[in-house]
Design brief:
- The complex is a heterodimer of chains A (372) and B (304).
- Chain A is an alpha/beta fold and 372 residues long.
- Chain A contains 13 helices and 14 strands.
- Chain A folds into two domains: 193 residues, Rossmann fold; 126 residues, Response regulator (Rossmann fold, 3-Layer(aba) Sandwich).
- In chain A, the strands form four sheets. Chain A has a seven-stranded mixed β-sheet, with helices on both faces.
- In chain B, strands 1-2 form a two-stranded antiparallel ribbon.
- In chain B, a hairpin with a 2-residue loop joins strand 1 and strand 2.
- Chain B is globular and about 65 Å long.
- Classes of the chains: A alpha/beta (372), B mainly alpha (304).
- At the A-B interface, strand 7, helix 8 and helix 9 of A face helix 1, helix 9 and helix 10 of B.
Chain lengths: 372, 304
Amino acid sequence: MKKLGLFLVMWMMFIGSASAEVIKIPVAGAFTGPLASFGEGIKNAALLKAEEINAAGGIHGKKVVIVLEDDLCDPREAATIATKLANDPDISIVIGHLCSSSSLAALPIYKGARIPAISPASTNVNLGKMSPYYFRDVYRDDFQGLFLAKYAKEARGLKKVAIFYEMNDYSMGLMLAFEEKAKKLGIRIIGKEAYTADTTDFKPQLTKFKMMKPDAIFIPGYAPQGTLIVSQAKDLGIKNTIFFGADGLDDDLMVKNPDAEGLFVTTPFLPDKAGPRAAGFIKAYREKYGKDPNWFAANTYDALGMAVAAIEAVGQDRDKIRNYLASINSKETAYKGVTGSTYFDENGDCLKDAFVKEIREGKWVSSEKQLQ
Amino acid sequence: MENLLEQSSLFLQQLVNGITLGGVYALIAVGYTMVYGVIQLINFAHGEIYMLGAFLAYSMVTFLGLPFFLAFALTIPVCAIIGIILDFIAYRPLRNAPRLAALITAIGMSIFLQNLALMIWGSQIKSYPRNILPKVFSEPALIFGEVSISWLQVFILSVTIFCMIFLHLVIHKTRIGAAMRAVSQDKTTAALMGISVNRVISFTFAIGSAMGGLAGVLVGLYYNAIFPTMGYVAGVKAFAAAVLGGIGSVPGAILGGGVLGIAEVMGAGYISSEYRDGISYAVMIGVILFKPSGLIGRKIGEKV
């Protein structure tokens, strides 16, 4: 029976879309498979936002229908989905994709079909430059480096920082961005050491750091190595040193490690530090899903909000929507959503604030000191 | 003056790190070198035995709730048995086949065991529970200025040294050791002298695998991370150590492990951590270039 009901709903949606009484907005991300947990917040927030828009009368009377497209964060799936969407005349904008690798695969197809897309979560540095039809309301990897340098100096007063980076594009990009900004701000980078992903022995590098006595060690890498680094630092007797990183360390692995106490990371959204505009969203999300929205959810909520605002303003023409989004390019014209003010630069990348959370007694909590 | 003191304590600390790492490499390298010495096979699945050792002890502690030292003691014979089974399934049927065939099955077994571990334990990094070792192990045994050596490092080093002495005695003072040496010189003649060659080979696999499994547990404890692909990198490094020391020679494996471990740590500590692995392999290549048979390896004349 349940299946029949579901079928009927889908059939009705199909009929609905065919009669053009609704506006279909596809949301592409991983909703099943190993990265489904990332996609969950995206799905929840998109459905919640659409519900709210429809309750308020839709877009000029037309209902918004969210079409979930599951790309599993697999570039091949993403390309297939992108081709399908690009050839559907009813589609005028896409929310997605989630993973940078999916976005990289889908982006040329959207560009060819002149269909604008807003990604709530892809942080790869190069994405924005590749297509004038690609926008995102999430910061770039290198932005986190700049932000962390500013935060380290202004909020934490760190003076001597050592950097322990992994030999890959993500980590080195972060490291370079951090280093450049830190030097400008007067933070002394007293040591820089590298590691490869397949190593488990970090003691030689940490021994060097130990002698330098840094205020903090910046780890612009991933959690599997990060958790080993903080533990081995403790084994070596490194004390009174703060560890911090970017979104790569934002993982349960870190929280489970008692040696990671006090470690802080950047995050695009924190429920308890978000501005007053977010209060309604957080409340509605909690009521509907029984938990706090994470940053994926918050960014998706705003991305969909921008898409709807664009359609409301200029209709369903793909190029007009693209131009509308591109005109959101200053603080004055910014879209004001639950994640603060969002506006794009000439590449479609957005410039917005990050937040900081830290590990206290085995839990992520919002840091007291923020840079807002 | 203070600077000199600081520099020397940094050097000492790195030396301790290097010796510990080298000891672990040596334990794994012994397994490679013994098998090579007896049947001239590079057992590429040896790194996987090391990984299985780490995981078996982990499962015994977390799922069966055994005390750590009992789990540690049980892991060693279990790994020895796995080694014997490995030889029985993958290498014995190919004993008289070209050496390349056995090398290929070795790589096959390595892939198989790695994926088996992935299926059983998953790809996430696991670590031993913190409270399995008596608290004293995480405390420093020796503090010299800024240098600290933990009891865990002392434990790892003493287990390594004990194993090496034990191995030396087995090879040189027992009947089975004499049989191993005989088989390594000439299989056919050894068989003619009444030695059961297959039993000797099984024994070699058992000892080598026991050491590998033991090394896995020690590394799991020391670095606090075990994962299904850990055997690959450690295996390659230990193989390099065995070649560096002279493959087929047990003291060579020990020396090779030590040299490689210290070279790696000193390279990372004093030259560049970006080229850490590059430096250790460069040392190995340098030695092989000037001394092709390794540091202690015998020079084997071409058989005509």
